[in-house]
Write a structure and sequence with these properties.
Helix content is about 35%, strand content about 25%. The chain is of the alpha/beta class. The longest helix is centred in the N-terminal third of the chain and has 10 residues.
């Protein structure tokens, strides 16, 4: 059995790294290249880079920055943000990126996932879903570009993305994002029980215990986190970090 992955999820905004809280106010945390160099030294499993401004601004991905990031990254790299066509995805893969995450484009046109899987292979396509509870407590797909809930059921949406060929599904809890309160285990468990593809959990992690429980109890194949790997202490001082490999083996080994 493969050891579950622990994945830093870094957010790009105007070329710099930021960290948000519930997809709202963001804090600048540094240069992406410097962070990647540190993660290289710390033997990180994999890295997710999401350009949160690309889709909001309805612009092309920043190919020059992606190329610079990919050239410095010595681990598998997943990129998302502003990808809405197969041509864009191919260009990014040709720059050295292993996986393409699609989020907003798949809300509007989930068939894009099938087109990407046909051209790149399912192993290179990650269906990304932001999820938030409505005022009635129901889970709904959240459109971060519009900063609003959609009427889409995230579980049905995940089923569709997997059926269209997504090799993995990344689920991010808007309500837990940046709160350091741990993952939304109900959300993750519901997805892992119905999907046959790996689920990457994101949103709320702050301790290694949070990582352990989302994998061991909620069934996630990978635990992604932002704050945990860029902040330290109660005052959220910026410090790029990652648990020692031996500690992860002990923590997540099954």
């Amino acid at each position: 059995m493969l050891l579950p992955r622990v994945i830093p999820c870094l957010l790009l905004h105007d070329g710099g790294l930021v960290k948000t809280v519930r997809f709202g106010a963001s804090k600048y945390v540094g240069d992406p290249i410097n962070a990647i160099k540190i993660f290289n030294d710390k033997r990180v499993d994999e890295l997710i880079i999401l350009d949160i401004s690309a889709s909001r601004e309805r612009r092309e991905p920043n190919y020059a920055l992606i190329e610079e990031i990919a050239s410095e990254c010595f681990m598998p790299l997943c990129y998302g943000g502003g990808v809405s066509t197969v041509a864009q995805a191919k260009r990014i893969v040709n720059l050295g990126v292993e996986k393409i995450a699609v989020n907003r484009a798949a809300i509007n046109r989930p068939e894009l996932v099938r087109e990407l899987a046909d051209q790149l292979g399912s192993q290179s396509v990650v269906g990304c879903i932001d999820v938030k509870r409505s005022w009635t407590g129901r889970y709904r797909v959240y459109d971060s570009a519009k900063a609003s809930l959609t009427d889409k059921d995230p579980f049905e949406h995940a089923d569709r993305l997997a059926a269209f060929g997504a090799g993995e599904v990344l689920v991010n809890s808007v309500d837990r994002d940046g709160t350091q309160q741990g993952y939304d285990h109900e959300l993750v468990s519901k997805l892992t029980k119905r999907l046959t593809v790996p689920v990457i959990a994101c949103g709320g992690a702050w301790t290694t215990e949070h990582l352990r429980t989302v994998v061991r109890e909620s069934g996630a194949s990978a635990a992604a986190a932002g704050s945990m790997f860029v902040f330290q202490g109660p005052h959220r001082a910026v410090l790029i970090s990652y648990p020692p490999y031996n500690e992860l083996l002990k923590l997540l080994g099954i």
